[in-house]
Amino acid sequence: MIIRIEPDSEVPIYAQLVNSIIEGIVNGRLRPEEPLPSVRRLASDIGIHMHTVNKAYKILEQGGFIQIHRRKGVVIQAARKNEDTGMYIDYLKVTLRPILTGAIYRDISLEQIHSAILEVYHDIVNSGG
């Protein structure tokens, strides 16, 4: 599993970890029922604090991306593509609001925003395993 963490990024490390794991699921590098490292192991492997990994795993579990079992450990959850779509769109809007506010403040046009979103979307979709 490849985890990309940029320590100097403005994005918190736990959020980078969440995004990296979700991207791995989306592009097929991480498959349903595939185990993830324990909190302790992943923290050690990438050199971050265990609480940071734990926070990321809790967010992923709440989002339905992983399951945390006492015996199995942490595993990728099977996709629920059509469930909770409306709720996720609402979450997406709330998440995008501060990003778009910053872009508008910097006079970035809607066309530039749209282009950036498409670029990231295609980068994620086309980086599959």
UniProtKB/TrEMBL annotation:
The keyword DNA damage does not apply. One of its GO terms (molecular function) is DNA-binding transcription factor activity. Residues 11-79 form the HTH gntR-type domain. CDD domains: WHTH_GntR. The keyword Translocase does not apply. It comes from the Bacteria. Keywords: DNA-binding, Transcription, Transcription regulation. Gene3D superfamilies: Winged helix-like DNA-binding domain superfamily/Winged helix DNA-binding domain. Pfam families: GntR. PROSITE patterns: HTH_GNTR (PS50949). This is DNA-binding transcriptional regulator YhcF, GntR family. It comes from Paenibacillus tianmuensis. The lineage of its organism: Bacteria, Bacillati, Bacillota, Bacilli, Bacillales.
